[in-house]
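We read letters as residues; the fold follows as tokens. A sample entry reads:
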Amino acid sequence: GTLPAISGANLTNLAAANLTGTVAVGRFPAGTILQVVNTFVQASSSYGTSANSHYTLTPLNTTITPIRANSKFMISAQVSGEGSDSNQQFFLRLIRNTASGFSDASNVVIGSGDNGSNNTAPENTSAFHGYNAANNDSTISTSHITNHVDSPSVAAGGDLQYKVQIYMQTAQTWYMNRTVTQYNTTYGDYLPSFVTVMEIAQ
């Protein structure tokens, strides 16, 4: 005869060791963290020369390949370094890029302020202060971009990269992850910079 339909709906007390296989990405509820990508940089590098300009901190470029369509992405960053001019304000700007190859020409600014009708004023994400003249060239600063949530509308498997840019108001050089002068002493500070991106199901 015909066997009755079998259902596992009422099964209980199953040992975890007996549960195998994978869960389809589409079955995860909204708010689930699907993946985390981190770029951690200790090496130093330098940027600048022109005033009132943005420079991409290339070692921090972080590529994440979405595993689910239309996910949200949470981005956080730490940026450390020192500029060659004393008593200066520095700014960070968060960038999204969804173009193949991630050329700077396809950068899109996200998480920035709004200058309204003040069109010559830069729009940035975060700010920090450089050393005072009294501290000479041996005082490193650290700034953070904390938990910005982005909705890039990218398909699963699509191109997606996040970048951080630094903006300087004067013509100078900014050194990432170190002081201007690399002292071998207690005030020769060396700090890391990093970017973390989390894909969140929607």
About this structure: DSSP finds no helices and twelve strands in the chain. The first strand starts at residue 33 and ends at 41. The mean pLDDT is 91.
